[in-house]
Amino acid sequence: MQNEESLIRRAQERDPMALTQLYEENFDRIYRYIVLKIGDRIEAEDMTQQVFLNALKSISKYKWKGMPFSSWLYRIAHNQVVDYLRKKSRRATVPLDETMPAGDRDPGQVAERKLEIEQLAKATKRLTPAQQEVISLRFAGELSVAEVAKVMGRSEGAIKALQHSAIVALRKVMAAGTA
Fold first, then answer.
1. Which domains can be identified in the chain, with CATH numbers?
2. Contact, 147 vs 68, CB < 8 A?
3. pLDDT (tens digit per residue) in 23-56
4. Closest CA relative to residue 42, chosen from 8, 93, 116, 110
5. Burial class (CB in 10 A: 0-12, 13-18, 19+), 107
6. What is the SS3 assignment for 57?
7. What is the pTM of this model?
């Protein structure tokens, strides 16, 4: 934590190395969190970039309170997801088919993996909003139970119980094939 505090202080002074390190340490987790919440990888990339732009604009106002810097980033990401979903509900959209890049990967395996992810995303939508948030933060964001508790403003015990109930509900939905 002491190391992160000094890193943030340097970033607030616009040290490019510190800013780059914060970006690299957090980008993947924030991206996974957003993509799980909205289900659109391309849009999630844009939104993740916007999270970091907003963080860069506001980093001078950031106050160290002993919490992980990622908690602040997740709050920014959460607000962006809420805004995105609010705007999306106001307009009809038609998703474009994603093209699969050519590469060394077996197209069959890629298709199976994509289907599994889609089924999991559909199953996740059947959870309560709090359960969805815990699953997103714990598994897509790779946060610890303590970090999720801080982000969500709940006790660690409440987060553990919520995570357990979410996993049980996901198993039931996936086993029933009603995702």
1. 1-94 (1.10.1740.10), 107-179 (1.10.10.10)
2. yes
3. 999 999 999 889 888 888 889 999 999 999 999 9
4. 93
5. exposed
6. helix
7. 0.63
